[in-house]
Every structure is written in structure tokens, then in C-alpha cells.
């Protein structure tokens, strides 16, 4: 006759028992830190980019291309791109309109 101990199936340990309570508590304590770290690492690039230009900065960018006196600066759209229309009066009396990208500061047109 077979021994009853030899007939027993080997027991599979409970996977939850492999994690002691202290480990799960340590993970819970670190969750806010992990969440903050992930937020910083996964932040969109636009949040880290320079803020958009204001009208004074747009006027300065336009004056670097065309000298004169700034008559007006207006926010506008050019081909779905936000721009500033900077109107400059040149020394000879000509009026020039220069477009400056509101997001990047790039001068788009300088006739």
C-alpha cells in the first residue's frame, strides 16, 4: 500500500504571499513620487517651449528686418498660422507690412 504522504500533490504557493505587506506599503508610499516623475518626463513639449511673443517683441523682430517707425501691430492669421502684422513707416515715406509668427518669432514676410 502507498503512503498517504507520497500521494499528495505538491502545493503551489499563493502568489500574493510572495509580496509581504511591508513591500506593498512601500510601493504605496512612493506612488506620489512616481506620479510626479512621470508627469515631468511625459510633459508635452509645448509646455516646456518658450511662451508666445507679445506685440512689443513682434515689433522688435520686424524692426530688425526693416528700419523705421512702427505704426501699428495687429494679431492676425496667415494660412492658419497665428501672426502679428507689423506696419512700419520707412524713412522714405513707404509703409511696409511685416508678418511675424506669434509662436516662434520668425519673420515670415519682409517686402
CATH hierarchy: architecture of the largest domain = Roll
Largest sheet: 4 strands, antiparallel
Measured between the Cα atoms of the first and last residue, the distance is: 105 Å
Helix tally equals 4
Overall structural domain count: 2
Structural class: alpha+beta
CATH topology of the largest domain: Nuclear Transport Factor 2, Chain: A
| Radius of gyration over all CA atoms, rounded | 33 Å
Unreliable spans are none
What is the name of the CATH class of the largest domain?
A: Alpha Beta
What's the arrangement of strands in the largest beta sheet?
1-2-3-4
Shape descriptor reads rod-shaped
Helical content band: 25-40%
The quaternary structure here is: single chain
Strand tally, please? 4
Strand content: 25-35%
Order of helices and strands: HHHHEEEE
Tell me, rounded to a whole number, the average pLDDT: 78
